[in-house]
Amino acid sequence: MGTEADRRFMRRCLTLARRAQGRTSPNPMVGCVVVSLDGHVLAEGWHRRAGESHAERVALEKLGGKAVGASLYVNLEPCAHLSKRRTKPCAPLVAESGIKRLVFGMHDPFPGHGGGLDAIRLAGVDVEGPVEESACRRLNEAFVVYATEKRAHFTLKAAMTLDGRIATASGESRWITGEVARAHGHRLRNAVDAILVGIGTVFADDPLLTTRGVRGGRDPVRVVLDGKLRLPLGAAILNSGSPARTLVATRKDAPLRREHALLAAGVEVLRLPSRGGMVDLGELSRELAHRDILSVLVEGGAATHASFLEAGLCDRLLLYMAPRAIGGDKAPSWLGGRGVLRLDMAHELCFDTPPRRLGRDLLFSATRVRS
Ligand SMILES: NC(=O)c1ccc[n+]([C@@H]2O[C@H](COP(=O)([O-])OP(=O)(O)OC[C@H]3O[C@@H](n4cnc5c(N)ncnc54)[C@H](OP(=O)(O)O)[C@@H]3O)[C@@H](O)[C@H]2O)c1
After folding, report:
1. Ligand 1 mean position to 299 CA, how many Å?
2. Which pLDDT band holds residue 82 (cuts at 50, 70, 90)?
3. How much distance in Å is there from the Cα of 226 to the middle of ligand 1?
4. Of the ranges 83-87, 106-110, 178-182, 205-209, the best mean pLDDT one
5. pTM here?
6. CATH architecture of 150-368
7. What 3-state class would DSSP assign to 254?
8. Which of 19, 53, 264, 332 is deepest in the core (most CB within 10 A)?
């Protein structure tokens, strides 16, 4: 939908919106471009973080609130309600700005929200959209899941060999992939609200879970799945000097004595119901969303990945594949658990982009097939 110029300006909105990746939750990433009748960009803006001005306001304020006869591009329908942080709605501002045309990328995914477009149409503005809708939904996929399912969005990520292994039989996993792929992984961390690992990975690898090396990066919240509160006080994540919070998701019957020790070390302990002896991931997904943690990068290990897939909570899968093989029947693959016995029970995913080359490695991206 839309003209070639409409699609170009919408892609510019997405580029602007992306500058605030990992900074806007529980709000979406939004960019806005105001364009004159003869196709010149008059002003741009993007939503920098929750609680700050929305993209449309930032762009229009650069023009003193008025953009008579202009076209306004924005990747999400302008809101018509007070936000959770009481930021003023944008639809009245857009309606009163004097623009002639509004081009939007996607509708407001919150059931019962919307209404912004009607208010703008009533002011005599031509409304066009959705334009570049799938790219707009892709950028804000975590926000869409939050709006429609009231839970966090999970991206499962692993670095594996050509034969699907994430470590050798002796447990060595550093490093499977090359520097370019690992740097890409650090940038991913910078774009999410939280990173999650199972306690098995803490014991095996003692990871830092930081965005080291990313210019202007900030470390996301660290979440550890640890049903028995075994997280050692000497673990690297607790001693890295990072200002990021660490949250341990545990079972209701986990030892109290350990909880006191972890609390004293500045860790937040989340006691949740269990399912099959493990932390219930459905409960965790809602609890994280309740804490404004919308996008989570699940960095393993194999048991953790299996639990997320089995719980229907693998929204996206990112697999870095190195051109090397380990072999043997003891080296773990990225997906543990009991596995399925029949092919018709296999977890179905769908590659949404072609593999991407990262140095000597490849990156595969797949999304869940919703039944
Ligand atoms: N190459 C890579 O990208 C990569 C990345 C990460 C890890 N790894 C490798 O993966 C291996 C570790 O994986 P792993 O499978 O042994 O351990 P894991 O998945 O890291 O941790 C599993 C443990 O987490 C706890 N847990 C609590 N709730 C859970 C739930 N709902 N689902 C799953 N686990 C839950 C359980 O311990 P409790 O019963 O004590 O709660 C469980 O035993 C290591 O060899 C590591 O090097 C590789």
Report:
1. 9
2. low
3. 9
4. 178-182
5. 0.94
6. 3-Layer(aba) Sandwich (3.40)
7. coil
8. 332
